[in-house]
Amino acid sequence: MPIGRRVAYLRVRRRLSQQTFADRLGKSKSWVDKVERGVRSLERVSTIRDIAAVLRVDAAALLGRDAQPVDATGRAEGVARIRAALSTYAMALGPSAAGREVLPADRLARQVGHAWTTFQHARYPQVVDLLPRLLVDVQRAHAQDPAAGRAVLVEAYRVTASVLVKLGEASLGWLAADRAMAAATGDRVLVAAAAVQLGQVLRASRRARSVLLAAAYRIAPDDCAEGAPQKLSLCGSLLIQAALMAARSGDDRAAVGLLDEAAEMAARVGDGCDHHRTAFGPTAVELARVAAAVDLGSGRDAVALHEAATGRDGWRWLPAEHRAAHLLDAARAYLLVDDPANAARVLVRADSIAPAEVRQRPVAREVVAQVARDPDAPTTITHLASDLRVG
Fold it and tell me: How far apart are CA 135 and CA 133, in angstroms?
């Protein structure tokens, strides 16, 4: 049913005449008549809310949607299971304590790879379901054979930290990242890989920047032109994380310098690669410039960088999770320049690319609510805000 006809139906159910309804809205009877006949469209979020308030219905009902809140209970239960798995110390209990066989490292590597792929498709509830048992299995395998099980253990902790950051579980994410760093000790490449997630967890920490830079430069080649793409990807990703930390603390010179250094490495790697699950390349660096500009409060620069970066061929090759996360940064950029229409547009686009990135992340829900509260926000964001019960 078109929204105008729905307004008319609900108005009649409330036994309101068009004139009474118009008076309560502060509009003319002619305006109400045109809305109900579909001659005039409802484009402002504030108007829809006013109508819903007069009709004493939820905005979702007015829009013809059965708004379902995000499954916060299910998410909390999943996080609790991950916490329990991280609290299981297989090295103390012994490899046979759980009553099942210790899986071989190659099989566990495939399972961890599946968890990473699921994460990069932004299927966070599925990742949360996979991780508790997977963590127990990789910890037991590492306890039985530390040498063979170390790499897969580090990767399992990395993906765990990544998804916990998405869900706003920073403290537990820090535990997973710290476990990854500890397990990786002694292997420069594994330490660098684990440090990428440490940077994500400790984005607001100035002290962690030195840790990331140390890990980056320990594997950096003497000559960038001769570096292996795998190591350049890790080194460049760490430089990006350090740059974002610098931007968060207001150090624009350090942020720009580190991103320029990462760009040199990205030029050698190229777009379309995903070494060590970093998706590092020239386009990834440009997206990081957008995030840095937003954190520095440079809205115009961030918008210009966003529009250029998403026009690159490399944009299409990035994982869905990476693209949708960037669009959240782009929405923040548009808000900085007082452009709620484009902020709403990129949020709806992010929701179409990776719904869980918008619907499961607390930070995303905050951005949606902020856009939906703007009186000039388009109705497209109202549907999304109603689904999320925010705004």
Answer: 5
pTM equals 0.81
Nearest C-alpha neighbor of 199 from the set 257, 157, 232, 241 = 241
Q: Give the closest residue to 254 by CA, choosing from 237, 266, 242, 236.
A: 242
CA distance 160 to 165: 9
The DSSP secondary structure of 209-221, one letter per residue, reads: HHHHHHHHHHH--
- CA-to-CA distance for 55 and 36, rounded, in angstroms? 14
- Residue 81, classified by CB atoms within 10 Å of its CB into exposed (0-12), middle (13-18) or buried (19+), is middle
First-to-last C-alpha distance (Å) of the chain: 24
Mean pLDDT of the chain: 89
- Percent of the chain residues topping a pLDDT of 70: 92
* Residue 160: other Cβ atoms inside 10 A: 32
Q: What is the dihedral of CA 258, 262, 265, 271, to 10 degrees?
A: -170
Task: List domains and CATH numbers for the chain.
Answer: 3-62 (1.10.260.40), 70-201 (no CATH)
Cα distance between residue 75 and residue 365, in whole Å:
15
Write the CA distances from 125 to 80, 119, 180, 357, 369, integer angstroms. Answer: 13, 9, 22, 11, 22
| Amino acid at residue number 30 | S
Number of alpha carbons in the 13 Å side-chain half-sphere of residue 325: 20
| Tens-place pLDDT, residues 253-277 | 999 999 999 999 999 999 999 999 9
